[in-house]
Amino acid sequence: MLPYGRQSIDESDIEAVTEVLRGEFLTTGPAVAAFESELSRHTGGVPCVAVTSGTAALHVAYAAAGVGAGDEVVTSPLTFVATAATAALLGATVRFADVQPDTGNLDPGAAAALVTPRTKAVTAVDYAGHPADYDELRAVADSAGAVLIADSAHSLGAAYKDRPVGSLADLTTFSFFPTKTVTTAEGGAVAAADPACHARAARFRNHGLVREPGEQRDPGHGGWHQEVHAFGLNYRLPDVLCALGISQLRRLPRFSARRTELVARYDALLRDVPGLTTPARRAYVTPNWHLYPVRVHDGRRREVYDRMRAAGIGVQVNYIPAYWHPVFEDLGYRRGLCPEAESYYAEELSLPLFADLTDAQQDHVVETLTAILR
């Protein structure tokens, strides 16, 4: 089965991991700081905190922003459920705002209509690797005195108005799952420009431990002494995976260039296929495409999905609207809440896209899809 996404591993990755395995550290060691430093080169210098997954990154970001019981978080439903679930786990009420019908990104106008004095965060999702409209969303967040968060699990290496993803919001989260542009197997990170917010994120990912004597309430007991002032969790990304991440980040420009090339080929090859819409792109955005999401019209998405997979092409659907999940239904959310997101979901199909996808494989995808739709 040709997958919709897949990691790209070469000998340099294997050597980097092997070097750590032969060293003194498997978990928290020098590779963690080196990975965070390397990642910050791609966020415009914004410091980063490495964590165990993209989901952990969201949880850490919300915790660092002070999201808790009684707060509200405005976000998109067209995302993996973790974007909303991690806010709900902290006790917040999630307010789902509709998306732009062409990009699938959070609609600033829809978000603005939902902010209240209880809004603690506005969380955008860079759907498919296309950055959201951050200037407008910044205005929405500022009007509510809220934190602007970017769920940039899809968009590391992308830019909005010549500013890199990672520098566009107060907090930015990344994912390094194998289908993403770069991978640490499992892993994620939070970028935070504000030093206090960065410190809260770093502590939350390490049980909330306070080890600096000058910041402890009851210091002086010895070098072993540590305190927990606010609860955290063990979200530490180990050295062995950070070594893989460093190696991968060094090839990010190459990965991005190949994805861009493949997207341009898809655009050209699928331009005149009936019953199909290819992804939109804003003129002021430089995407780093994680997905190639087409929209299949005339109610044929399920048919096309089934026939493509029967042909050995592992297309995917991204995503079930988050509030359709039973856990949110049980909280009172109802279908019909965000019509544009539901319409997008009803037609969306992600075609294979990854750095090692060959032109011949891509041609086969296009030929099979075209034959089905014609």
UniProtKB/TrEMBL annotation:
<keyword id="KW-0663">Pyridoxal phosphate</keyword>
<dbReference type="GO" id="GO:0008483">
    <property type="term" value="F:transaminase activity"/>
</dbReference>
<feature type="modified residue" description="N6-(pyridoxal phosphate)lysine">
    <location>
        <position position="180"/>
    </location>
</feature>
<dbReference type="InterPro" id="IPR015422">
    <property type="entry name" value="PyrdxlP-dep_Trfase_small"/>
</dbReference>
<dbReference type="InterPro" id="IPR000653">
    <property type="entry name" value="DegT/StrS_aminotransferase"/>
</dbReference>
<protein>
    <submittedName>
        <fullName>dTDP-4-amino-4,6-dideoxygalactose transaminase</fullName>
    </submittedName>
</protein>
<dbReference type="InterPro" id="IPR015421">
    <property type="entry name" value="PyrdxlP-dep_Trfase_major"/>
</dbReference>
<dbReference type="InterPro" id="IPR015424">
    <property type="entry name" value="PyrdxlP-dep_Trfase"/>
</dbReference>
<dbReference type="GO" id="GO:0000271">
    <property type="term" value="P:polysaccharide biosynthetic process"/>
</dbReference>
<dbReference type="Pfam" id="PF01041">
    <property type="entry name" value="DegT_DnrJ_EryC1"/>
</dbReference>
<dbReference type="GO" id="GO:0030170">
    <property type="term" value="F:pyridoxal phosphate binding"/>
</dbReference>
<comment type="similarity">
    <text>Belongs to the DegT/DnrJ/EryC1 family.</text>
</comment>
<feature type="active site" description="Proton acceptor">
    <location>
        <position position="180"/>
    </location>
</feature>
